[in-house]
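Protein Record: Sequence and Backbone Structure Tokens
======================================================

Structure line: whole-number tokens from a learned vocabulary of local backbone shapes, matched to residues.

Purpose: to set a sequence beside its fold so the mapping can be learned.

___
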Amino acid sequence: MIQAIRWPFFVVGVIFFSLGISTTINVQHLGIHPWDVLNVGLFEMFGFSIGTWNIICGMTLIVVSWILDKSYIKIGTFLNAFLVGSCVDFFLWLDILPHATHTWLDILIIIVGIIIMGVGGGIYNAAGVGSGPRDGFMLSISDKLGAPIRRVRIITETGVLVIGLLLGGPVFIFTFIFTFVQSPIFQYSFLKCKKFIERIEASKLEKRVRDSSIAK
């Protein structure tokens, strides 16, 4: 019952994260996150949709992570792969997000998108119901090789970026500054949301103990 508190945070976080991705894709000429460069590159080369490639790449990473280290794979990991891809396609289909103006406004739009991604990523990770496919993949690689997570992340995202670039994905200045902007926002929202969830759970548990004592 207590665990159920975490799921609404997970869903809200995934929706925000997907909204942020969709926002940045609309101004992709400024550069987008390396993983999204890959998804857009695959879309440009083979068709389907950006969200579909997000799901395919996510499921592939889950399989690899499952082979390397099952501890990072939970039900939330599978849901993350499907929900993020589906929500990205949904937001792009709605066509309600700002489009590229090729003016200074595009910089504002992509910064807002990065902030939303950071906040959303922090929220759904704070829920603790499963790492995202990419996070789980990099954590399992880090554990297997005994290498620092930061180094694994840099190498992995660089490799993904090169593949995405070769497929025709959009790479520009914001591709390289994504991490510097998003990571601090992710960390802040993750820590704040995690504490908030723990306070709610503690309060619910205390109430259950109190009600149980009264009933006796």
